[in-house]
Amino acid sequence: MMDYKKIDAGDVEYLVSVLGKDRVFTGEEINDDFSHDEMGGISRTPDVLVDVLTTEEVSKIMKYAYDQRIPVVARGSGTGLVGASVPVYGGIMINMSKMNRILEIDEENLTLTLEPGVLLMEISDFVEEHDLFYPPDPGEKSATIAGNINTNAGGMRAVKYGVTRDYVRGLEVVLPNGEILEVGGKVVKNSSGYSIKDLICGSEGTLGIVTKAILKLLPLPKKAISLLIPFPSLDMAISTVPKIVKSKAAPTAIEFMQREVILAAEEYLGKKFPDNSSDAYLLLTFDGNSREEIEKAYEKVADICLKEGAVDVFIVDTDERKDSVWSARGAFLEAVKASTTDMDECDVVVPRNKIAEFIKFTHELQSRFHVRIRSFGHAGDGNLHVYVLKDALSEEAWKKKLAEVFEAMYSKSRELSGLVSGEHGIGFAKKVYMLEQYSQEYVELMKNIKLAFDSKNILNPGKIFQ
Amino acid sequence: MMDYKKIDAGDVEYLVSVLGKDRVFTGEEINDDFSHDEMGGISRTPDVLVDVLTTEEVSKIMKYAYDQRIPVVARGSGTGLVGASVPVYGGIMINMSKMNRILEIDEENLTLTLEPGVLLMEISDFVEEHDLFYPPDPGEKSATIAGNINTNAGGMRAVKYGVTRDYVRGLEVVLPNGEILEVGGKVVKNSSGYSIKDLICGSEGTLGIVTKAILKLLPLPKKAISLLIPFPSLDMAISTVPKIVKSKAAPTAIEFMQREVILAAEEYLGKKFPDNSSDAYLLLTFDGNSREEIEKAYEKVADICLKEGAVDVFIVDTDERKDSVWSARGAFLEAVKASTTDMDECDVVVPRNKIAEFIKFTHELQSRFHVRIRSFGHAGDGNLHVYVLKDALSEEAWKKKLAEVFEAMYSKSRELSGLVSGEHGIGFAKKVYMLEQYSQEYVELMKNIKLAFDSKNILNPGKIFQ
């Protein structure tokens, strides 16, 4: 299956004939950034890198690559964490990030039509100016929308608003053989054949290249207020979450954090967090259209938390406090990264009443393996981000230890009916753990689906299940 | 592809060996109900009908059928409207409706685990007793949950809460070759490989047989109030909808109805509607946790409607009024059906700002083709239910006229960027219209996906695209 044609001068010539010399790069012209993502533990430089501006260009390149059997990887901002956009078989990398226009905001149908390379931060800025709202809110705001679609990115607001898939109404996709397909549209409901749109969402660039997306928007809530709630222990904090979820208060986000991560963020940012005296915290957000409505909701939740043993309840409503809390939350990943020499991340998702058990288990692993482990994440939806830190370990010792710790964590996740990835995907780095969880038939079925789209297996090979 | 083994005595003997004599039916023992659904325009009796009680039984039957190349159709309540569960190639029909136990309500993770044959009305009764809420609300409450999953049923609350797909967290599925697969789970987020769960949703029984489902629940809103709003014309009513949707008032449902359908319902039920003096109505529902919150929302919407020309605003809050409005709304389909000799239905979905244009077009068709056309539907999500009535036409004239009217309607829908089905599916009856809309590559891709699941094409053949 993996017997690909090696790129030669003729291939480069073809690409130049389609795109012009200025948008085709080889050898030393390719910036090293394109050889890796943010943390996939794998790198390889593509044989050719091309910048595209139109769907037709993507289509022509795919037709050619399909004919010639050349592997192709589409890439956005490269902010992935599992190596999904690394061209492990070389070949052509298509840089989608210059197809980055917002094409239409439709205020009657509440949709936004845009090109794949638009950044998450650009979307929120743009739609909020129109008093509209794109709810998915992953931490990495410089990711592209197509990257988010391909990982089915989740983010902090999933507990109330759902994930990226829930906001994708339609897609234009270039298939591996170069055909252009439109699936879905501006319509709200759709039972017209297999939901190819939903299959593309989360397929990590292996089934087609997204060249346009139609997103669902909501009216922008008028107000949002956060609560920072310290607890004496993580256990007490986490066990409060199901009670909050059931309370009809509908928080937008329920994040958990522990003191050690807060301290790291304080050091990294050189800025104080409102409180760092407790072991564990819940950070909740509420949104709505009136202050009274939000107050009613958060008062109910504050009562629940205090009854369950919370030490205090800080209302995060001044600009200063908002900034200090959310800039810290936004910096957790970077802060943990800065505190060590290297690290890797586990993005398991477990049923939300199993979070505490999982986190306690990672604490045991710290002692058992003599390694630092840090975590934070989405208590409201059971999606954890657990980081194993290299610190002073040798490269060899680190690889070995990391494999052992990951093996233990993913095995624990299976025991708790969790899954390998809540929102970062499988890509290259998490294949082995997914393959341990899914039956042979399951994997076989995914391979068959892949072949249904890509009979020559040229689009982003070596990912998810192969 | 369609060269199937004909059922013989040996096959029946095998089925009896798995299920016992009492649960295997042939010939005259098969009730005629199993030969058709509610309105697919097609009927055929299966060669064998079997009742199953366990996943293992389904698995054994599928393994056998796969080996022998016998077509199989799984059937729930038979409330479909497009012939999706009719065994057009004969073979085995598996009646799933006795696998109808609710297995678990998990109040910490807000999930409901249940067998495929549980009825929609049983779900709402059960979860509401636990102060929880399953939002999808199709009109047909005697449909099974697996039927709803297989059509990705929508219903009236889609404008606020989404469709069935959005509430399916996990599935147990028996594949065509008899393998049992679990996809998803109780987890809230999932980026762990291709979303086979989302592909099964809406696949109309062609990819696998759902034997268990894990549904997402929400806390039950404490109150709901409806508004009935008469308008001088349908146009005025419908053009108000985008303004309502943008208003942040978040109605749960926005239905439209016209006087003629209301009159039919009054006659059918022998019961008065609160008002029938206007040409067109919007019926809106608001839910929430306090009367003030709901009042604020509906007052805003009432103001918008009056500004846009509404004649009046009736608040539907007494039990009596609720009953008269919602029993009428619930009886529309039956009332229209009772008013004629035969009818067929078009379930297009268009962008919601195109509804008025589509409905006006159906009025033109009434005059052009001298045929009665009635419609009602989901103004909030652009999903229309348009009924063409046979009345006194001969069978032959009716078939011809229906084909012409449908051709005109589906062609109009395409012009408006609509899709063939919003929630009833393609099944057998709407294949031709879907095939007119989708490109050859699109259809080819669906066929390839089908083969990825079912290389022998034995599960519900002759549906959607073939």
Please name the defining characteristics of this protein:
7-stranded antiparallel sheet; Uridine Diphospho-n-acetylenolpyruvylglucosamine Reductase, domain 3; alpha+beta; Alpha-Beta Plaits; homodimer; 14 helices; 466 residues; 18 strands; 5-stranded antiparallel sheet
How would you describe this protein?
- Chain A is of the alpha+beta class and 466 residues long.
- Chain A has helices at 9-19, 55-68, 120-129, 145-151, 158-161, 196-200, 234-245, 259-269, 291-307, 319-338, 355-369, 395-415, 431-437, 440-453, and strands at residues 24-26, 48-51, 72-75, 92-95, 102-106, 111-114, 132-133, 168-174, 180-184, 209-216, 218-219, 223-231, 253-258, 280-288, 314-316, 343-346, 373-378, 383-389.
- The mean pLDDT of chain A is 95.
- Among the domains of chain A are: 102-219, 2-Layer Sandwich (Uridine Diphospho-n-acetylenolpyruvylglucosamine Reductase, domain 3), CATH 3.30.465; 223-338, Alpha-Beta Plaits, CATH 3.30.70.2190; 343-425, Alpha-Beta Plaits (2-Layer Sandwich).
- In chain A, a hairpin with a 5-residue loop joins β8 and β9 (180-184).
- A seven-stranded antiparallel β-sheet of chain A has the order 15-12-14-13-17-18-16, sandwiched between helices. In chain A, strands 5-6-10-8-9 form a five-stranded antiparallel β-sheet.
- In chain A, 36% of the residues lie in helices and 20% in strands.
- Chain A is globular and about 70 Å long.
- Chains A, B: This is Glycolate oxidase.
- Chains A, B: InterPro entries: FAD-bd_oxidored_4_C, FAD-bd_PCMH, FAD-bd_PCMH-like_sf, FAD-bd_PCMH_sub2, FAD-linked_Oxase-like_C, FAD-linked_OxidoTrans_Type4, Oxid_FAD_bind_N, Vanillyl_alc_oxidase_C-sub2.
